[in-house]
Structures are given as structure tokens and as C-alpha cells.
Amino acid sequence: MKLKLFLMLFSTIGIHHSILNAQSFNLEKPTINKRAIFEEKNGIIAIEAEHFTKQSKNNLRQWYLTTKNKIANVGRDDDTQHCYEASNNAYIEILPDTRVTHSDKLIRGENFSDKPGEIAILNYKVKFNNSGRYYVWVRAKSTGTEDNGIHVGLNNTWPESGQRMQWCDGKGNWTWESKQRTKKEHCGIPNAIYLDIDKTGTHNIQFSMREDGFEFDKFILTNNINYVPVKKGPKPILVKGKLPKPFPVAETAKPQDSYFISISKSLKGNSHIAAQEFPIDGTDFYKNGKNWLAINPNTHKEATTSTTFNFESGNYDIVFVGVGENDGRSTFSLLINSNEIGTYNPPLSKRLWEEGKKFNALWKNINLNKGDKITVKAKIGSDGEEWTRGRWAGIVFTPVGQGKKIQDSPSTFTFEK
Description:
3 helices
């Protein structure tokens, strides 16, 4: 009986653990048989990015699969899942992504490589029935200025015509592009990315990292210079092997409030100031995504910002909405007219970042007058290897006695399972 109960408990824990950590298990592995060969027909070939046969030179960075139910947790990645509208309901991303903004440190040969074939090479086998020049189109999603470049090669060679593929248009959307970045044209020259197939037969098409954080959905090779892909492009064709089953459909995300806005609206009488409503000029904070302020640990260790309390004078419970991070514990201080009312260290998160009750601070029965100066000071933390970013979402002011209800209100912030 005891053994049976132990096995049941172990099974439950194992299932729970697999849900929380499905994030990284084998997500760098090929999703198609390594002997699979795609086929060019009538001058065109389309291949899903996740259908590579192998990765190489991937000790510093690797490509990881993202689907509705799977997301890698292998270091910094400030993006959320972008599997909505992705072809085959999946894509791959090169991680960790340590250079998100221009202010993040550029480390050549690690988070950036202008030399093709140096880092994280993807391999795809293609049988060409027709030789000639093939223009390369890639469907990618870029959300910033430091995640929009990749290189393409052929049979372990990296011609100039396959280097510095660049995206500028279509930020935040899955976008087809076939432009090459140059010194004069940073957003790229059309029709300058191509591979010359000298003879028919099976060839190895390859892609390698230029910038970490690059999100790669699908690619097309076409011998028609005037061809422009639409929507998700044509379907892949295999001459050897078979395609795996499509990944689960991720329906278009419905707009919803952030966790901070959700709890702010949970009770009547609440007032709130979102973090991004605080000024950032000269504060050493920057806007992180759509909801948070944060600190770049490569340039600053502390930051301070202030704004005015413009709500009705009275006593309030104050809920400070912080963000848990997995690389240390940040420190936050809240001041009213230069008088500190408290400090707070959100606990460690098991994920890259996380919001919820345990990452918030609550100060009860605080007197506030219209016109008071509200100041937030933040200091980054560390786990001894990496630094936090001092992320926070905002402050909720609720009638006295309501603070705990705000803390306990349902959260709209969840990780997909």
C-alpha cells in the first residue's frame, strides 16, 4: 500500500514537473528524421525552420523550438511566445538572447557574428531538379533592433550573397524578407540574398546566427527573381522520408489586460500608476516590453524615478507590483515625499520572469495627499553568475482594508500549458 501511494505521488510530481519544465527538454533536437530530403520542383522549395536535420557549432548558442505547449528556458529571453500565426504552429529561436537592445553589450563571436558559419548552424537537405540561381526568402519575427539578422550558406560554404540577411519592416509580425544589409543600406537591398546551385542533386542548405534572439519560421528558395511569398507560403515537398504531424494549433491570442491592470480593476475605488507612466529620462530605467520598467545591468545597478500622486487625499493600502526573476532578487524601495515607507525583495522565480501575488509588496494604511511625490528606487540583484533587471509593473492604491483582496484577486498572467 505504501509503495502504491509513493508511486502515485511520484507520478503526480513527475507530471507537474514536466509541465513546468517542458520548456527545455529536447527542444534543440531535430523534429524530422535526420535522413529526410526535401525536393525542389518547378523552381521552388519551401521548408519549415524546425525541420532541420542537425545543428552544429552550437556550444555558445542553439536554436530551440517553440510551440503552443513548449518553450525553452535556457537563459535570457525577454520575448513571449510568438507561435500564433506561425507556419506549422511552431518556430525556432536562437538562445540565450543576451543582446536585446542596443545598450546591451555586444560580444562578437558570442551574441553577434558578422562572420557566417561561425555560430549555431542549421542544416537542411534539398534535392534540386533544376540548377541555377535561387533567391532566398525567410519568414521571421523581429521585435527589436538586435534580433533581425541571419546568414545563409550552401554545402559548408558561405558566399557573400548569403551574408547579412536583414529585416526592418514588419516589426512584431511574421514577415517574409529577402534583403541584404550593406554599409550604405542598413535595412537591406532587395534580391541580393541568393545561392547559386551549379548542378542538380542533393545539397545542404545552411543557416547560421548573426544576432541572438532571431525567430525563424520558414524559408523558401526560388529561381524566380520576381517571386514574393504570401501568407505562410507553399507547402514543403519531401523526396525521402515523411513530414511529422503538425504541432497543436495556437489560436490568435485575444487581447487581455496585463496582470497589473487586471488586479487594478479588480475592486471599485482602486487607483493605480503603471510603471511606464513614471518618467524615465535621467532615471536609469528603460521601458521593458509593454508593461514594465527595468534596469540594464550592463550600464547601471540602480535607478530612481518619481511622479505625483494626483488622486483623492486619504489613507490607502498600497500594493507594489514587482516581477520575480530567476537570476537573483532585486530590491525596491517606495518613498512618499522622501520618506521611505518600506523596501521589498521579490523572491526568486523558477522561470525567467514571473508575476503574481508572491512577487508583490503590501503596505497598509498609508496616508497620502494629492500632490505628494511618489518615488520608486530599484537595485538589481544577482545569483552570482547573472544579474536581474529590477523589473516592476506599477503601484495600486486601494481603500484601507482592501489590500489583501487585491493581492488575492485572480491573475490573468499565466504560462501556456
